[in-house]
Amino acid sequence: MILLALILVPVAAAAAALAVGSDRWRPALLPAAFTLHAAMVLACWRRLPEPAAAGWLALDPLSLLVLTLASVVMLVCSVYCLEYLQLRPDRHNRLFTACLAFILGAVSLVCVSRHMGLIWVGMEAATLAAGPLVNFNRSKRSLEAVWKYLMMGSLGIGLALLGTYFLALAALPSHGPEDPLLIDVLLARASTLSVPWLKGAFIFLLVGYGTKMGLAPLHSWKPDAYGEAPGVAGVVLAGVLTSCAFLGILRAFQVCVAAGLGDFARGLLVGMGLLSMATAAVFIIGQRDFKRLLAYSSVEHMGLLALGVGLGPAGTYAALLHFINNGLAKGVLFLTAGNIHREFGGKTMDHVHGALRRVPYSATLFLLGFVAITGSPPFGPFISEFSMLRAAVNGGRFGVAAAMVSLLGVIFIGMATTVLSVVYGPAKADPAGSGRGDSPFLVAAPLVFTAAVVGLGLWLPGWLTSALDGAARLVVGAPPA
């Protein structure tokens, strides 16, 4: 029952948002519904619920991690929205709040699904619901961005659908009366799957869901979408939807490992991971738009996730920790970038200087977010990136380790050039800006994310390390500890 409630509570909140007539009171629905959702997720940590819907719905340690990150990120963002949407009286928020709530329901469906077709349905629903968030500002550039986002998203989801068909074809000769796309059936009969069809399925699922993650070379939607969407929408795209797409790839990877195709799949993941990091490094250098900068940073970190899984069991553990760190750090960066953008009325180095003088709290958190996302201690991403590097070295992948360190160094320099220019220097007066400065709710939300990223850099609680270990074992096909 709780599995269905995880999906239906946010969907009901979306329906209520459409029904409520007041722009002022409608955003209050979000924290109320998302708090209930987070409470249900907490209950799942205490005891995993029994499978439902004939085994189509269930949670395991891997999906519970993704669901938890999504629930926490959305809850914090809903608090941010209480004030943010009041600052935008020029925009009706009915569709915005409804889509935010519906996205949580869709990603909950992705997380609790034990059927590859149902995962696809959830990803498609989340993709479509995110479109109005990207176009919230209703400008010419945001309209162009949402069209690019939907076109590339449709391409990716179409390729993922083709990969799902191939997966069903791989299982057809041996699946018996069971549904061939149930993950448990695929894993149980992995040794009998058709190898050519399975290889084709993984390639299409990797490229399809990789497009949703923003892996190069199908990342071109990210700079426009992240650059034009409000900061809170950027957090949802970079911290929630990409994590769900990553889960879709990991489900396909599980099947490949069980079928003896682990080396084949890992090789593809390492290749796409390094390509994404190299692409991000090229475009981050000289980037003057700090919101587009965050888009290329996201391309980099999606590459790190793929690379980590491709490095074997130790790298997989590090990648799972890193997707949590990345989601939280992106919460800091996108929300504070939105605050700075609104204060100055621009988002390029030509318009924004001396943010530390105009919005000192947001600028400080933005600077801390930059230090965190570039893998510097004492923040969480340092732990996960160092663990990936150690996995590469211990596995004898010295070329991969050298490439990873070199690209991370280039990206650090490129991001530092832009971020330091935005934060420091004389404050630039711009009549297009809001001139409101920092305000409590708009600073509290990124502060929560910052505290979480620092906490994960200083101490990993036992329950989290145990969950990460269990999830990594599921991915690589190792028996439980």
Secondary structure topology:
Layout lengths: L1 H18 L9 H18 L14 H24 L9 H19 L3 H19 L5 H32 L11 H6 L6 H19 L7 H8 L2 H28 L3 H23 L5 H21 L2 H32 L10 H4 L1 H14 L6 H15 L3 H26 L16 H19 L3 H15 L5
Helix pairs in contact: 1-2, 1-4, 2-3, 2-4, 3-4, 3-10, 3-13, 3-18, 3-19, 4-5, 4-10, 5-6, 5-10, 6-8, 6-9, 8-10, 8-11, 9-12, 10-11, 10-13, 11-12, 11-17, 12-13, 13-15, 13-16, 13-18, 13-19, 15-17, 15-18, 16-17, 16-18
Description:
The protein has helices at 2-19, 29-46, 61-84, 94-112, 116-134, 140-171, 183-188, 195-213, 221-228, 231-258, 262-284, 290-310, 313-344, 355-358, 360-373, 380-394, 398-423, 440-458, 462-476. The chain is 75% helix and 0% strand. The chain is globular. The model has no long low-confidence stretch (mean pLDDT 91). By secondary structure, it is mainly alpha-helical. The chain has 19 helices and no strands. It has a domain at 271-481. 56% of the residues are buried. α2 runs antiparallel to α3 (61-84).
Derived structural class: mainly alpha
| Residue windows where pLDDT falls under 50 for at least 5 positions | none
- Beta-strand content: under 5%
Q: Averaging pLDDT over every residue, what do you get?
A: 91
* Most strands sheet: none
Supply Rg: 21 Å
Distance between the termini: 29 Å
Give the beta-strand count. 0
Order of helices and strands: HHHHHHHHHHHHHHHHHHH
Shape: globular
Subunit organisation of the chains: single chain
Number of helices: 19
Helix content: over 70%
